[in-house]
Amino acid sequence: MVLREDNRWNPIGRDWNFAPDVIRNLFVDREDTLWVATVKTIAFLRRGSKAFELAGPVGRGVTTLAQAKDGRVWFADDSKRGEVRPVPTAGHNSYAEDPAIVEDGLFELLIDRDGALWITRHDSGIVRIRYPERLGNRKLGPHDTELESFNEKDGFTGGFAYKLLEDHEGNIWVGCSKGLVQFRHNQVVPVSLPPRYQKLVLRAGEGGGIWTGTINSKPLLQIRGETFLVEKVGEGTSSVFRDSNGDVWWGCADGIWRQRGTQFKYFPMPQGAEPPNWIYEIFPSREDGGLWVRLGDFGTVQFKQGVWNLDDRLRLKGVPIRGPSASYNDASGRVWLGFSAGQVYVLDVGQGNSSGLSQESLRQLIMGYG
Predict the structure, then answer these.
(1) 31: number of CA atoms within 13 Å, CB side?
(2) H-type helices in 117-259, by residue range?
């Protein structure tokens, strides 16, 4: 190994605490640390230092190094059986404490901008793990569900896969025995839900998660990546609203669930409300902390601090008494209400004013925004 300095190539050897050997791979991580894989070990040089440190022994076939989102540097080794795992470091038993993927034919690795781990395979196709940081210390084989395999049955016709490259647009290119294969970057990925989760209600959660409800007799789901947590509440969900205090209100077939952080409280449907009792819409009222709730075909009534007021119904000139079929809260605090007959109303919650818009004037208003 040599270093270019002042138009000269200077050999890197024992004065840098580096034993000359066959170099298999070089890699610079996000902290500007240089990692060097030889046929015996992996060493690293911190930024500004002139003394290499030993990371740990590895096999003779290290092909690539890459850094994961959590900062760990991974390596791929195609000697003996294919193996991909984090680099061993001093005082840390990588074999016992870190995850690993062990499968015949594994060759090179790449960690993309989203943190997914891609691995090429000699025996055709590639493997992807979307969240390697969640593996703990598990050792994965070819049949583990975390491994997404792409081969001929998935439309991958590249033959034996060798090289991996991510371009500036986030696309993944795979060099294969039959040419190049491109995986286009896509923020939309499928999520498989349990049976009978249809006609969904969705809400954005914290940290990139998604909350999901269904009008069927199934509870709420908290989805994070490829995993989901089944709650014990929220069956028959038909609407959801998050108020200015951060409380989330889930409208269900027989009442409302209030979600405050991880705690849920149930408010049953009031007596006297005529069926069907689906809660189609929830939106804020002029009352501080109050809500308007559309109870099926009964009407849109007041709900505040757990108390229903069936006598206080939303009444807007020229619109159906039952209430809106859609609602939207904009950044200024106004509430937009859409009705099945084609009307749109704007409620200024802070001032208590309302105004109606015909279909034509609404169309002109939207065009004016452009």
Answers:
(1) 15
(2) none
> What are the tens digits of pLDDT across the range 94-133?
777 889 998 888 999 999 999 999 999 887 678 999 889 9
C-alpha 263/C-alpha 364 separation (Å) is 44
Name the amino acid, one letter, at 332. Answer: S
Which pTM value belongs to this model?
0.60
Task: Calculate what percentage of the chain has a pLDDT beyond 70.
Answer: 90
Beta carbons of 12 and 34 less than 8 angstroms apart: no
Contact predicate 217/209, CB 8 Å? no
pLDDT at 158 over 80: no
* Residue owning tokens 């004013």: 353
Structural contact between residues 173 and 165, judged by C-beta atoms closer than 8 angstroms:
yes
Q: Please, are residues 118 and 131 in contact by the beta-carbon 8 Å criterion? A: no
| 272: CB partners within 8 A, 6+ apart | 310
Domains for the chain: give ranges and CATH numbers: 2-183 (2.130.10.10), 238-369 (2.130.10.10)
